[in-house]
Design goal:
Blueprint lengths: L9 H5 L5 E3 L15 E7 L15 E8 L2 E5 L2 E5 L5 E4 L6 E4 L3 E8 L8
């Protein structure tokens, strides 16, 4: 394996960093380091939800349902992701929260990868 190639398993690797697979928070020598984008493999048990809304967001986000039933709450509406491949995208400045109606796996992509934000 060269320094610019990384092969892994999203489920295994996600367990090491709260689900995050790629972003500015990875060591600069790691091929998964990126200042442009963050990627998360989220595994959520039924009933799991964000304790507080995310406010003042400076990134754009795309959330794709892999399995389960997952609801994303936005200021003006809720979006239910119920079929594999359902997704929702929201831009900078859009507050949000989420809730797993069933055990769910979701892939989240956020950009840019902004230092100072919690993972």
């Amino acid at each position: 394996m060269t320094d610019s190639v990384y092969a892994g398993n999203a489920g295994n690797d996600a367990a090491m960093d709260r689900g995050w697979l790629l972003g500015h928070f990875k060591d600069a020598s790691d091929p998964r380091h990126s200042e442009a984008v963050e990627i998360k493999w989220g595994v959520h048990p039924k009933g799991d939800g964000r304790a507080q809304w995310v406010t003042g967001e400076e990134r754009t986000a795309l959330l794709v349902l892999i399995s389960g039933r997952f609801r994303v709450e936005l200021p003006d509406r809720g979006v239910l992701l119920a079929r594999q491949g359902d997704y929702v995208l929201w831009g900078r400045g859009v507050d949000h929260s989420w809730f797993a109606e069933e055990e769910s796996v979701v892939l989240t992509v956020r950009w840019p990868s902004v230092p100072g934000y919690g993972r």
